[in-house]
Design brief:
The protein is an all-alpha fold. 73% of the residues lie in helices and 0% in strands. It is elongated, with a radius of gyration of 18 Å. The relative contact order is 0.08.
Length: 179
């Protein structure tokens, strides 16, 4: 991740560097204004700062602004930033927000269906519900081979998930089979 951050910083322009400085400032009003600016004309390359901000802030207004930004993403290149973060254990505390934004943004994540299946099976119930929705939205784009692989993974997971998630896994299997 450290090398990623160094490479990422080299690609940033002056506008992004200024935005990053403000996002790191701790000034909630300025942070929210900058997030609004990013929403209007920002680039996906700023997303790692938003992810990190979600991890460190306790300000509910900042969290809400970050969440709205992520939910409103409409550029597919954002997935290049989101997927590595979803795989990073460091971001588990905010993974529910991130997974929710995946389906709310409307970005196509069908090529990452196995990641979302793993999250669905391994994370807490609330995050699993968000992953369920991402998977449900992917079904139409999956190949027959993908469906077989996903179904096998879910059937295997059904044996090991906590009791409160068994019904959710069974429901997803029904959705997949009825498609």
């Amino acid at each position: 991740m450290e090398q990623y951050n160094k490479d990422h910083n080299k690609q940033l322009g002056e506008t992004e560097k200024k935005q990053i400085s403000i996002l790191r400032s701790g000034n909630s009003k300025a942070i929210i204004d900058t997030i609004d600016e990013i929403k209007g004309r920002g680039r996906a390359s700023i997303l790692p700062e938003i992810f990190d901000l979600l991890l460190i802030t306790m300000d509910q207004d900042v969290i809400a602004a970050c969440t709205t930004l992520l939910n409103d993403l409409k550029i597919d290149e954002a997935s290049e930033y989101i997927i590595p973060v979803l795989k990073d254990q460091k971001y588990i505390p905010v993974r529910q927000i991130l997974v929710s934004s995946c389906w709310q943004s409307g970005i196509d994540f069908h090529t990452d269906y196995l990641l979302f299946a793993e999250i669905f099976l391994s994370d807490d119930y609330a995050t699993a519900i968000e992953a369920f929705t991402v998977l449900e939205n992917c079904i139409g784009e999956l190949t027959d081979r993908d469906i077989v692989q996903l179904t096998g993974l879910l059937e295997s997971g059904l044996k090991t998930v906590p009791a409160e998630k068994k019904a959710l896994v069974s429901e997803l299997l029904l959705v997949i089979r009825s498609y």
